[in-house]
Amino acid sequence: MDRTFVILKPNAVKRGLVGELLSRFERKGLKLVELCLKQLTRDEAARLYEVHRGKAFYDDLLNAITAGPVVLMVLEGRQAVDVVRKLIGATDPTKAEPGTIRGDYGLDITDNLVHASDSPESFQKESAIFFSVSGKTH
Ligand code: CMP
């Protein structure tokens, strides 16, 4: 079965949206394989967002993701990567469709509530920073 890695960002935790956001994934039929609340270190954040190093928004991104505890999870289900990206919506919440998480809950592109892996390769790399799980179960 396919897996993806998801982070509920500090602003989602601060706003008390953890239960609501988790229930959206569960209602869709995705299964929680890993779940934890954690304050990311600067080093973990830098590993997570390595591909964005050097971009104009990089420092803001690292500051935002380390601003408070996050919820880290691995979700399992058919085509989990694509399904979760559809559920969370476009990166910029002002462009995300209503009905998606970013479309329903926010406006800020840096504090856009949720991060999710954009490919099975990103899942492997990102989840390995925090969990010892593999991409597939048999
Ligand atoms: P996320 O899915 O966590 O992956 C990288 C993050 O960078 C993204 O969500 C946004 O929070 C942030 N991001 C991407 N593009 C921009 C941008 N143009 N300006 C500011 N932040 C951005």
Q: Topology, pairings included?
A:
Elements: E1 3-8, H1 10-14, H2 18-28, E2 31-38, H3 42-48, H4 58-65, E3 70-76, H5 80-88, H6 101-105, E4 114-116, H7 120-130
Antiparallel strand pairs: 1-3, 1-4, 2-3
> What do we call the CATH topology?
Alpha-Beta Plaits
What is the CATH level 1 assignment?
Alpha Beta
The count of domains is 1
The helicity comes to 40-55%
Principal-axes shape call: globular
Q: Could you characterize the architecture of this molecule?
A:
With 138 residues, the chain is α+β, with helices and mostly antiparallel strands. It has one domain (2-130): 2-Layer Sandwich (Alpha-Beta Plaits), CATH 3.30.70. Helix content is 41%, strand content 17%. It has 7 helices and 4 strands. The protein has helices at 10-14, 18-28, 42-48, 58-65, 80-88, 101-105, 120-130, and strands spanning 3-8, 31-38, 70-76, 114-116. Strands 2-3-1-4 form a 4-stranded antiparallel β-sheet, sandwiched between helices. The longest helix has 11 residues, at 18-28. It is globular, with a radius of gyration of 14 Å. The relative contact order is 0.26. The chain binds adenosine-3',5'-cyclic-monophosphate (CMP). Adenosine-3',5'-cyclic-monophosphate is lined by residues 52, 57, 61, 91, 109-110, 112, 115.
